[in-house]
Design a protein that fits this description.
heterodimer, A: alpha+beta, Heat Shock Protein 90, 5-stranded antiparallel β-sheet, 5 strands, B: alpha/beta, Transcription Regulator spoIIAA, 6-stranded mixed β-sheet, 4 helices, 6 strands
Chain lengths: ~150, ~120
């Protein structure tokens, strides 16, 4: 099998003002993969959340780092990797969020990770020599079962 | 162009907030500030009218969650109206529809305070 080459690589500074660019590019790539507008909006949200996690946790708010997003859009499937070279994060698994308890305890952390898990088919994390890689894959609902990306 | 603006008006003792654009980690402070301004004035009946809200990330949802207990403790509530499909889907995915009352129209949201008083409680 040949090595996977992302269709598009986007590198942006680790600043929240670039979340709009990330959202717009994700939305466009989702449309390329055949997702409709509402689905594309949700995928953009998941990638926004992953990128926000990088800024807030891996980089602890440092604005002078880089986030790399690797998009692979093929028929009915969108695959996005969000890569950073920050501190190791150990999400282990998408947390279960008890909203009523969250509200009563004024907790808000973990909502983004929870959203990512609910929107995407798979969300996986791995640590490489360079940093953290969050890989998210979504197959278009109703699409035929082809080879997994 | 700004990614978010939040207009405000008042009707029947209810503070109406109109977020226009995108609420995420970059813009959430503006949204939080608009809510907090109402609370600082002792206004605990709030409707977020989302006809022009294109997108809300967890930062924005967290902003609502962070104040709802204070609002309900003071006999009020924060209610939502006119959410587009994208935003409504996000609320449903997270189960926010079980925590907050969501109305198809702004008028219904305002009238709900008249019917049920300000006493906030999660939907049944």
């Amino acid at each position: 099998m040949s090595e996977r080459r992302p269709a598009l690589i986007l590198r942006v500074p680790s600043r929240t003002e670039y979340l709009a660019t990330i959202r717009d590019v994700t939305r466009r790539m989702a449309e390329v993969a055949g997702f409709d507008g509402a689905q594309a909006d949700q995928l953009a949200l998941a990638v926004d959340e992953a990128s926000t996690n990088v800024i807030e946790h891996a980089y602890r708010g440092a604005p002078d780092r880089r986030i790399e997003l690797r998009f692979d859009a093929c028929a009915d499937v969108l695959r996005v990797e969000v890569v950073d070279d920050g501190e190791a994060v150990d999400p282990r698994a998408v947390p279960q969020v008890d909203l009523r308890r969250y509200a009563s305890e004024r907790r808000t952390g973990g909502l983004g990770m929870h959203l990512m898990g609910r929107i995407m088919d798979t969300v996986t994390f791995r640590r490489t020599a360079r940093g953290n890689v969050c890989c998210m894959v979504k197959r278009r609902p109703g699409a035929g079962r082809g080879a997994a990306p | 162009m700004s990614e978010l603006s939040v207009d405000r008006r008042e009707l029947e003792g209810v503070v109406l907030l109109y977020p226009r654009g995108f609420i995420n980690a970059h813009t959430v402070r503006l949204f939080e500030g608009a809510i907090q301004e109402a609370l600082d004035e002792g206004r605990y009946r709030i409707v977020v009218s989302g006809a022009d809200l294109k997108y809300i990330a967890s930062a924005g949802l967290g902003a609502i969650m962070g104040v709802v207990e204070e609002i309900r403790t003071n006999g009020g509530d924060i209610r939502l109206a006119e959410l587009n499909e994208t935003v409504r889907n996000i609320f449903d995915i997270l189960g926010f529809n079980h925590l907050y009352r969501i109305f198809p129209s702004e008028v219904e949201a305002i009238l709900s305070f008249r019917e049920g008083g300000g006493a906030g409680s999660p939907p049944a």
